[in-house]
Specification:
Helix content is 32%, strand content 21%. By secondary structure, the chain is an alpha/beta fold. The chain binds guanosine-5'-triphosphate and magnesium ion (MG).
Protein backbone atom coordinates (compact mmCIF):
# COMPACT_ATOMS: atom_id res chain seq x y z
CA UNK A 1 0.00 0.00 0.00
CA UNK A 2 1.37 3.40 -0.94
CA UNK A 3 0.73 5.48 2.17
CA UNK A 4 2.07 8.57 0.42
CA UNK A 5 -1.00 8.55 -1.81
CA UNK A 6 -3.39 9.49 0.97
CA UNK A 7 -6.18 11.92 0.27
CA UNK A 8 -8.44 13.86 2.56
CA UNK A 9 -12.03 12.93 1.80
CA UNK A 10 -14.31 14.90 4.08
CA UNK A 11 -15.29 15.89 7.62
CA UNK A 12 -18.59 14.96 9.22
CA UNK A 13 -19.95 16.89 12.17
CA UNK A 14 -23.06 14.77 12.59
CA UNK A 15 -23.60 11.06 12.70
CA UNK A 16 -26.43 11.26 10.18
CA UNK A 17 -24.04 12.72 7.57
CA UNK A 18 -21.73 9.71 7.55
CA UNK A 19 -22.46 7.55 4.52
CA UNK A 20 -22.82 3.80 4.71
CA UNK A 21 -19.52 2.00 4.82
CA UNK A 22 -18.40 0.81 1.37
CA UNK A 23 -14.72 0.12 2.10
CA UNK A 24 -12.59 -1.30 4.89
CA UNK A 25 -11.95 1.27 7.60
CA UNK A 26 -9.20 1.84 10.16
CA UNK A 27 -10.18 4.20 12.97
CA UNK A 28 -8.05 6.24 15.38
CA UNK A 29 -9.49 6.82 18.83
CA UNK A 30 -8.18 8.59 21.91
CA UNK A 31 -8.33 11.57 24.21
CA UNK A 32 -8.07 15.03 22.87
CA UNK A 33 -4.40 15.97 22.42
CA UNK A 34 -3.12 12.37 22.63
CA UNK A 35 -1.68 12.64 19.12
CA UNK A 36 -4.22 11.07 16.72
CA UNK A 37 -3.80 13.63 13.97
CA UNK A 38 -0.01 13.63 14.37
CA UNK A 39 0.06 9.85 14.03
CA UNK A 40 -2.10 9.91 10.89
CA UNK A 41 0.18 12.52 9.34
CA UNK A 42 3.20 10.38 10.19
CA UNK A 43 1.70 7.31 8.51
CA UNK A 44 0.87 9.39 5.43
CA UNK A 45 4.24 11.11 5.50
CA UNK A 46 2.52 14.49 5.38
CA UNK A 47 3.07 17.62 7.45
CA UNK A 48 -0.48 18.65 8.24
CA UNK A 49 -3.04 16.68 6.28
CA UNK A 50 -4.86 15.77 9.49
CA UNK A 51 -4.78 19.08 11.29
CA UNK A 52 -2.59 19.15 14.37
CA UNK A 53 -2.98 21.82 17.01
CA UNK A 54 -1.60 22.58 20.43
CA UNK A 55 -5.15 23.59 21.32
CA UNK A 56 -6.92 20.48 22.63
CA UNK A 57 -10.25 19.65 21.12
CA UNK A 58 -9.20 20.70 17.64
CA UNK A 59 -10.66 17.74 15.79
CA UNK A 60 -14.36 18.03 16.56
CA UNK A 61 -15.50 16.19 13.48
CA UNK A 62 -15.02 12.67 12.17
CA UNK A 63 -12.50 13.03 9.35
CA UNK A 64 -12.20 10.49 6.56
CA UNK A 65 -9.01 9.96 4.56
CA UNK A 66 -8.43 7.42 1.87
CA UNK A 67 -5.46 5.41 0.70
CA UNK A 68 -6.20 3.20 -2.28
CA UNK A 69 -9.29 1.17 -1.32
CA UNK A 70 -9.16 1.87 2.41
CA UNK A 71 -10.55 4.60 4.65
CA UNK A 72 -8.70 6.05 7.61
CA UNK A 73 -11.01 7.60 10.16
CA UNK A 74 -9.78 10.30 12.57
CA UNK A 75 -12.28 10.30 15.44
CA UNK A 76 -12.85 13.42 17.55
CA UNK A 77 -10.81 13.45 20.75
CA UNK A 78 -12.79 12.79 23.90
CA UNK A 79 -12.23 13.86 27.49
CA UNK A 80 -11.43 17.50 26.95
CA UNK A 81 -12.78 19.21 30.05
CA UNK A 82 -13.07 22.76 28.81
CA UNK A 83 -16.09 22.42 26.55
CA UNK A 84 -19.82 22.83 27.01
CA UNK A 85 -22.10 19.91 27.86
CA UNK A 86 -23.70 20.24 24.45
CA UNK A 87 -20.37 19.90 22.67
CA UNK A 88 -19.41 16.93 24.83
CA UNK A 89 -22.64 15.19 23.98
CA UNK A 90 -22.08 15.93 20.30
CA UNK A 91 -18.68 14.25 20.34
CA UNK A 92 -19.94 11.35 22.41
CA UNK A 93 -22.77 10.78 19.95
CA UNK A 94 -20.34 10.91 17.03
CA UNK A 95 -17.75 8.51 18.47
CA UNK A 96 -20.31 6.23 20.09
CA UNK A 97 -22.53 6.22 17.02
CA UNK A 98 -19.65 5.42 14.70
CA UNK A 99 -18.36 2.57 16.86
CA UNK A 100 -21.84 1.17 17.44
CA UNK A 101 -22.59 0.94 13.71
CA UNK A 102 -21.82 -2.74 13.30
CA UNK A 103 -22.72 -2.61 9.59
CA UNK A 104 -19.47 -0.79 8.92
CA UNK A 105 -16.48 -2.66 7.59
CA UNK A 106 -14.37 -1.60 10.57
CA UNK A 107 -11.16 -3.62 10.35
CA UNK A 108 -9.29 -2.24 13.34
CA UNK A 109 -9.33 0.53 15.91
CA UNK A 110 -6.06 2.13 16.94
CA UNK A 111 -6.70 3.13 20.55
CA UNK A 112 -4.18 5.83 21.49
CA UNK A 113 -2.99 6.31 25.06
CA UNK A 114 -0.39 8.88 26.15
CA UNK A 115 2.54 6.79 27.32
CA UNK A 116 3.47 9.30 30.03
CA UNK A 117 0.26 9.02 32.01
CA UNK A 118 -2.17 6.57 33.52
CA UNK A 119 -5.16 6.09 31.22
CA UNK A 120 -8.22 8.20 32.02
CA UNK A 121 -11.63 6.81 32.96
CA UNK A 122 -12.75 7.54 29.42
CA UNK A 123 -9.80 5.56 28.04
CA UNK A 124 -10.69 2.55 30.17
CA UNK A 125 -14.35 2.86 29.21
CA UNK A 126 -13.33 2.89 25.54
CA UNK A 127 -11.09 -0.16 25.92
CA UNK A 128 -13.83 -2.06 27.72
CA UNK A 129 -16.29 -1.09 25.00
CA UNK A 130 -13.95 -2.44 22.31
CA UNK A 131 -13.42 -5.67 24.24
CA UNK A 132 -17.11 -6.16 25.07
CA UNK A 133 -18.18 -5.61 21.46
CA UNK A 134 -15.37 -7.72 20.02
CA UNK A 135 -14.10 -4.84 17.91
CA UNK A 136 -10.50 -5.63 16.92
CA UNK A 137 -8.10 -3.07 18.31
CA UNK A 138 -4.49 -2.40 19.20
CA UNK A 139 -3.18 0.13 21.72
CA UNK A 140 -0.74 2.77 20.54
CA UNK A 141 1.28 4.37 23.33
CA UNK A 142 1.99 7.88 22.07
CA UNK A 143 4.64 10.51 22.73
CA UNK A 144 7.25 7.84 23.52
CA UNK A 145 9.99 10.39 22.79
CA UNK A 146 9.04 12.29 25.95
CA UNK A 147 10.04 9.46 28.30
CA UNK A 148 13.53 8.47 29.42
CA UNK A 149 14.21 4.72 29.46
CA UNK A 150 13.63 4.29 33.22
CA UNK A 151 10.38 6.24 33.23
CA UNK A 152 9.26 4.31 30.18
CA UNK A 153 9.90 1.00 31.92
CA UNK A 154 7.93 2.18 34.93
CA UNK A 155 4.97 3.22 32.78
CA UNK A 156 4.97 -0.13 30.95
CA UNK A 157 4.82 -1.92 34.33
CA UNK A 158 2.08 0.39 35.59
CA UNK A 159 -0.08 -0.19 32.49
CA UNK A 160 -0.35 -3.84 33.50
CA UNK A 161 -2.36 -2.75 36.53
CA UNK A 162 -4.17 0.12 34.85
CA UNK A 163 -5.41 -1.40 31.59
CA UNK A 164 -7.64 -4.49 31.57
CA UNK A 165 -6.00 -7.50 29.85
CA UNK A 166 -2.99 -5.29 29.01
CA UNK A 167 -0.69 -8.25 28.52
CA UNK A 168 -3.06 -9.83 25.98
CA UNK A 169 -3.42 -6.65 23.94
CA UNK A 170 -1.10 -5.85 21.06
CA UNK A 171 0.66 -2.68 22.09
CA UNK A 172 2.83 -0.35 20.00
CA UNK A 173 5.01 2.40 21.47
CA UNK A 174 4.94 5.34 19.07
CA UNK A 175 6.45 8.76 18.53
CA UNK A 176 5.46 11.19 15.82
CA UNK A 177 8.73 13.00 16.55
CA UNK A 178 11.24 10.15 16.16
CA UNK A 179 9.08 7.92 13.95
CA UNK A 180 9.31 5.03 16.41
CA UNK A 181 6.52 2.55 15.76
CA UNK A 182 5.38 3.91 12.40
CA UNK A 183 6.67 0.88 10.48
CA UNK A 184 4.87 -1.43 12.92
CA UNK A 185 1.60 0.42 12.36
CA UNK A 186 1.98 0.26 8.59
CA UNK A 187 2.79 -3.45 8.78
CA UNK A 188 -0.38 -4.12 10.80
CA UNK A 189 -2.50 -2.26 8.25
CA UNK A 190 -0.88 -4.05 5.30
CA UNK A 191 -1.28 -7.43 6.95
CA UNK A 192 -5.01 -6.92 7.49
CA UNK A 193 -5.45 -5.67 3.91
CA UNK A 194 -3.80 -8.76 2.48
CA UNK A 195 -6.19 -11.14 4.26
P1 LIG B 1 -7.54 16.33 19.04
O1 LIG B 1 -7.67 16.59 17.57
O2 LIG B 1 -7.78 17.51 19.91
O3 LIG B 1 -8.35 15.16 19.47
O4 LIG B 1 -5.98 15.97 19.33
P2 LIG B 1 -5.10 14.85 18.62
O5 LIG B 1 -5.22 13.58 19.37
O6 LIG B 1 -5.36 14.82 17.16
O7 LIG B 1 -3.61 15.39 18.91
P3 LIG B 1 -2.61 16.14 17.91
O8 LIG B 1 -2.07 15.20 16.91
O9 LIG B 1 -3.27 17.38 17.41
O10 LIG B 1 -1.40 16.49 18.90
C1 LIG B 1 -1.58 17.27 20.06
C2 LIG B 1 -0.25 17.89 20.48
O11 LIG B 1 0.68 16.85 20.86
C3 LIG B 1 0.44 18.70 19.40
O12 LIG B 1 1.07 19.80 20.00
C4 LIG B 1 1.47 17.74 18.84
O13 LIG B 1 2.57 18.38 18.27
C5 LIG B 1 1.87 16.94 20.09
N1 LIG B 1 2.32 15.57 19.76
C6 LIG B 1 1.62 14.65 19.07
N2 LIG B 1 2.33 13.50 18.95
C7 LIG B 1 3.51 13.70 19.58
C8 LIG B 1 4.68 12.87 19.79
O14 LIG B 1 4.77 11.71 19.39
N3 LIG B 1 5.71 13.43 20.51
C9 LIG B 1 5.64 14.71 20.99
N4 LIG B 1 6.70 15.15 21.68
N5 LIG B 1 4.57 15.51 20.79
C10 LIG B 1 3.51 15.03 20.09
MG1 LIG C 1 -6.81 15.68 15.98
Amino acid sequence: MNFNKAEFITSYGKLSQIPESDRPEFAFSGRSNVGKSSLINKIFNRKNMARVSSVPGKTVTINFFSVEDVYFVDLPGYGYANVSKGEKKGWGDLIGGYLADFDRDLELVFQLIDMRHAPSKDDIQMINYLIDNEIPFVIVLTKADKLKPTARKERMEAFKDEIPYFEDIHCIPFSAVTGEGVDDLKAIIEEIRED
